[in-house]
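Narrative progress, year one. The postdoctoral researcher (J.K.) led the effort to move from monomer predictions toward full complexes, under supervision of the PI. The following entry was the first complex the group processed end to end, covering 497 residues in total.
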Amino acid sequence: MDMSPSTIRPKLTARGVNVFYGDAQALNRVDLDIRAHEVTALIGPSGCGKSTFLRCLNRMNDLIEICRVDGDIRLDGEDVYDPAVDLVYLRARIGMVFQKPNPFPKSIYDNVAYGPKIHGLARSRAEMDDIVASSLERAGLWEEVKDRLDAPATGLSGGQQQRLCIARAIAVRPEVILMDEPCSSLDPIATARIEALMDELKQNFTIVIVTHSMQQAARVSQRTAFFHLGDLVEVGDTDTVFTQPVDPRTESYISGRIG
Amino acid sequence: MNDRAEHIYKTFDEELRQLDNRLAEMGGLVEAQLAGAVEALRRGNTELAEQVVARDKEIDALDIEIDLFSVRLVALRQPVAADLRTIFAAIRISSDLERIGDMAKNIARRTHAVSSFPPLATTASIASMARVVQTMIKQVLDAWTARDTEAAADVFARDAEVDQHYASLFRELLTYMMEDPRNIGPCTHLLFVAKNLERVGDHTTNIAEQIDYAVLGTRSTERETHDPTNTHIPAAEG
């Protein structure tokens, strides 16, 4: 295992994070480090707070009016919740892939070019072509779509659409990619391709994935965090969590027991 | 099984119970085989010895059955944590039990050869060594059923006793052989029997280790299975 300091240094740190939806508390004082260039899996039963936590990391919860977040979340040491933070820029640094593929009703090319255009990442058409091609390549979709870049994205299969959304996310050169159950609407082959992709992408990005599939967490992640009723119960190396969990609640959940 | 909450898939609980039942059945058979082998040897009962040799096939068949059943469980249930450790421990325990069965068979096979010589006082020492080993097997099987790591630790402690028995038998047999070369035949057979019993003790401690692994997830680094006679091999006396 690579134990060099660069992989250990946390990319994101969360300290004492509380989240409330109105009066209901969804997360209780969560402390969690997300290491750079690793896949961190967040697991737990429905309503445990794992997606809520994920959405705190790039302030997606700001969009929900009754949602209140307190505590400290830092990206490379910078306060994510600092009022001076430019949200568009923050979400370019911390991209997101959702449960259902949500391509824009545009061409394949325009889907990928959309972000770089907004952020002014390309100075010419040729540069934009490069960004689109390399993003699609990294997302493992290039070979399948290179001859029909002008075709509507909605004509792609579900798995292809999800890889397109990954290409769209990485086109703006994020540092972190958040994935909220990215494979839950995909068949096993498309799922395997996305999982293999995560393994490659972690060399360039830091990935945090919320998943309901324990096997998926075991296959793709290096660290696993188990949430239960708004508490972060246990976090550790994935191989330890799945062979020798410390907390009985983790044990019950991952081994499918009525806990 | 133990006081853990039940699985949402009740059939998985049922399958884990089946695995335990199979191991318990195999353990009981192994205990009976070893008792039979020692009894046959002590009394020179070649008929009983043949029965023991023949029944070893049943142990082998159970070992294969447990093995295949466990592989199936891993493939179909994708167990993790304590469930996963329990299944792997069961596979290893089954193979240790199978080896103990082989030892019993080997001991039984020597009955015929040993009974053709005049009886030696040593057979009593063999019997008392066998008693220690049989107690260890019983203890370790009970400890597995109860997933009792403290009881498993007791089994470890007893293995030293087995080693002492073995060392003293070794010296005893050497003395007989030096006394009268006609003793060399039976004594060599009895030496093998003692060695087999000593190996049974080692397999029993392997099983004790698996109880630790299943319950706690810890594996002690391979304990030295030292042969106490290694340092005792006497130089030829003039």
